[in-house]
Structures are given as C-alpha cells and as structure tokens.
Amino acid sequence: MILPTTAFPLLSHNRVSQITFHPTQPYLAIQSQERSVEIFRIRTEEEVRKKLARRKKRAKEKREREVQATDEANENETVEDEISLVDLFTPHVVVRASGKIRSFSFDPQDAGVKGGIQVCVSRVPSPPHLTSCLQILLALSNNALEVYNVPPTKKSKEEPLEASRIYSVDLPGHRADVRALCLSSDDQLLASASNGGYSVLRSDIC
Prior knowledge:
By secondary structure, the protein is of the alpha+beta class. The chain has two domains: 18-170, no CATH class; 175-206, no CATH class. It is 15% helix and 34% strand. The protein has helices at 45-66, 72-75, 85-88; strands spanning 18-21, 27-31, 36-42, 89-96, 101-106, 118-119, 132-140, 145-150, 164-169, 178-183, 189-194, 197-202. The strands form three sheets. Strands 5, 6, 7, 8 and 9 form a five-stranded antiparallel β-sheet that branches. A four-stranded antiparallel β-sheet has the order 1-2-3-4. The longest helix has 22 residues, at 45-66.
C-alpha cells in the first residue's frame, strides 16, 4: 500500500540529522534540534482503524449538518484508502539533553530486564507494547554521555510524559573526539583514548 505524501508532525522545522527505529519496540526517534530528540510511537493496526473510523464519523456528521448526504460512495469509502503517515505515528516524548546532541541510540538490551525490555510498574493493565520503558543514549558534542528513561504511554493525558536522565558521564576529559573505548573485565574501569590524550574512569564515578 502506498501512503499519500504528508508532512511529519515534528516540533522543529530544522534539518533532520538522524532517524532511528527501535530494534524491538514500536518507536521511532528523530533528531532535528540541537538539544532534543523527538520520540514517536507507532500505532497498532487496531488503533489506526479506530482513529480513521472516528475521523470518518466526524466527517459524516459535518456533511449532514451542512447538506443532506447524497453520495453513498463517499460514505462507504474504505478506511485503508485514507491512511496517511500521520495516522501511523503519534508523538510520545521529547528527550531534552543538557547540551548539543551529536548522535543517539536506543538500548535494546537493558541490564536486568527480560527480552531487552525494562517493564514499568503500572496500576492500569495495558498491552505489553505500552508498558515498556525504553532507554536512549545521547552522545553530546562536548563528549559527554547521557542515558534517559523514556516512560510508557499512559491512558490518562492529564500529566505530560517526561523522559528522566538516569546516567551521565560528563567529567572534564578529552578535548578531541574519542577514538577508542575499552571496558575492563570486571566492569569497574573504562579507558578512553583520543588524539593526544587518554583517560580512565571508575564505575563509581560514571
């Protein structure tokens, strides 16, 4: 099926620098701002059909208010013909970093989780694809690293979703791009090397 051309609902109108799909979960991340990454959730087929059915119902009610509906063909047009790019994606969370973002990556194998997915505690039972926490790693232009937890979708929209920073490596270090990394066998030391310098970090200060 070919989708009609449409504009993606980005908050920023700047040039997009990176687009990444989560390897296992229905999420898409787009970076078009220097300090933020916009994360979109991919709707399920059932959600798309419900959305299009509501839109079709509203359009029909609007036509009936204006004039008597006489074209039955328009009323019976299939939902599939109306699917657009915006219907498949819905804005989820905007991750805002402390500095200019150079690149980012999803973490498909979070520590201590089952199947590469960190399950969040929720009072309201939800489908599995709506109850999973995601982790995203941001590499900043100042060579700092930040890891954020992305919350799952909530049925209540009273409180906006916010990503929380859980880890960061932002100690003064290399003045040039890092060219190599090495982690010790006991996971206690991280060595990094750049043009003209190197550093070693202990796990208790990461």
